[in-house]
Design brief:
Blueprint: E1 14-15, E2 22-25, H1 32-37, E3 42-47, H2 52-63, E4 68-73, H3 80-92, E5 97-102, H4 104-117, E6 121-125, E7 137-141, E8 147-152, E9 159-163, H5 164-169, H6 172-195, E10 204-205, H7 207-232, H8 238-258, H9 262-270, H10 281-296, H11 300-313, H12 329-339, H13 355-364
Parallel strand pairs: 1-10, 2-9, 3-4, 3-5, 5-6, 6-9
Antiparallel strand pairs: 7-8
Amino acid sequence: MSVGETAVGHVPLRAVRFPGKYIQGPGAIRLLGAEAKSFGLRAFCILDRGIAEALRPKLQSAFGNDSELSTVTHGGNCTMAEIASLERQASKYRSDCIIGLGGGKALDTSKAVANSLNLPCMVVPTIAASDAPCSALAIIYNEDGSLDRAMNLARNPDVVVADTNIISAAPARFMAAGIGDGLATCIEANACRASGADKTFGFQGLELAFEIARLCEDTLLEFGERAIAECREGACGVATERVVEANILLSGLGFESCGVAAAHGIQDGLCELEETHSSLHGEKVAIGILGELLFQEVEGRAYNRCKSLMEKIGLPATLRQIGIPSAPHDQLHQVALRACRDGDSIHNEPMPVTPDMVVCVLRELA
């Protein structure tokens, strides 16, 4: 009997996961010290190396003199070696909580460190490029930059603080990538619902989770283009607030509580090619979305609606745009084999998916 199955009548158990607290808005980082203090006086903060110096003053101001704060700079990738190194440093500091501040790899590393040390975890995303901040997952990479695995963590972050002033000041490319990741949420949720697939932590999704996934898609389709325009102007308006909420919170709740499918499976496969390593996660997911919709043979309007938004906000819609200009068969086959690996999310589709099918849809996106 699986985790998500009852003993009587094989009725599936359903569930949903949430972070402990989610705070969003302009200047929200100023609350970080007070939130951390509820866990103890010694906070260990892992700073994304790309923004460490710029945000260190804001961090120090948020903590003031009421708590002890130790800061370290993240190495740049979420690898087992990086996690182990930071675990040792946090243990030596006798930390009461772990804080991750930065992009997805720094946040995933922080979550993994907190999980290993059984400490409270706080995350502060500085970009809205993915739905990583709210989840109980850490995506682990190999030292060469290729994908290793998704690590399941014991719990979601205790506090997520999304300062929209900081997020809107980042290049628009990051927010666009988050829209790509977020657009997959409802599409993949529907695939998992149709197939009856268990999601990451062994249960099927509650109705609430599917409503969250639907709201995520509706929000991105309505506000996505305007939010990117605001971001390019350095503004933080209503559209930005709605899209940050969708990219980080709604997509995070939706994917984790409904499941993922072919869009992320194809993304996993694309990570095998060194040529794609400079593309963001959400940019590769955008290619995966189009591939998934081709698998599902959806009516043209739904496909064109997604593709149109991608093109308007600068997301890739072809393999050429993520560094694969000629798309030779051996590369496509390599992607397809990784995407269809046993246990990968592509098998959550409501139909069997083979490597040949993946090659076929990728050719259409060349």
